[in-house]
């Protein structure tokens, strides 16, 4: 699928910089392409939509981490390793989102997740994932632990 079929919008991240009331960060991914293709990628071997535990969210830098760094946000099928979707995004925006998710987890450690991922097809919500992990890799494919969101007790 083409990356330009997707748009990404985040909410509940500004409270961190404004020292406001904590709110669970949410990323909404809208898909404007062939619906059957995305549905197929989000469907597991049991013909049911993948749940949160069957998916991983990551960010792969395309250049070194600097003021104008860009990269690719991806959602993958944890069982098969296949990419469900990919889209381009600025590193500053992704790292800001991860900081908000980390702070939210610190403020509400009993929450089920630290951020939500909502995937829509042409405006209709298909799935919502409650996530706790968001891995960030440099342009060479090495994990950047200090920029990633990794819950305590999780070993990679």
The biggest beta sheet reads: 4 strands, mixed
Q: Averaging pLDDT over every residue, what do you get? A: 92
* Annotation field: number of helices: 3
Content-based structural category: alpha/beta
Say how many strands there are.
8
The string of secondary-structure elements, in order, is EHEHEEEHEEE
Helix content: 10-25%
List the SSEs and their pairings.
Blueprint: E1 6-11, H1 14-18, E2 26-31, H2 35-41, E3 55-61, E4 70-77, E5 83-90, H3 91-107, E6 115-121, E7 124-131, E8 135-137
Parallel strand pairs: 2-6, 3-8
Antiparallel strand pairs: 1-2, 3-4, 4-5, 6-7
Concise overview:
This protein is α/β, with parallel strands linked by helices and 156 residues long. The chain contains three helices and eight strands, in the order βαβαβββαβββ.
How would you describe what is shown here?
By secondary structure, the chain is α/β, with parallel strands linked by helices. Helices cover 19% and strands 34% of the residues. It contains three helices and eight strands, in the order E-H-E-H-E-E-E-H-E-E-E. The strands form two sheets. It has a four-stranded mixed sheet. Strands 5-4-3-8 form a four-stranded mixed sheet. It is globular and about 40 Å long. It starts with 5 loop residues before the first strand and ends in a 19-residue tail after the last strand. The model has no long low-confidence stretch (mean pLDDT 92).
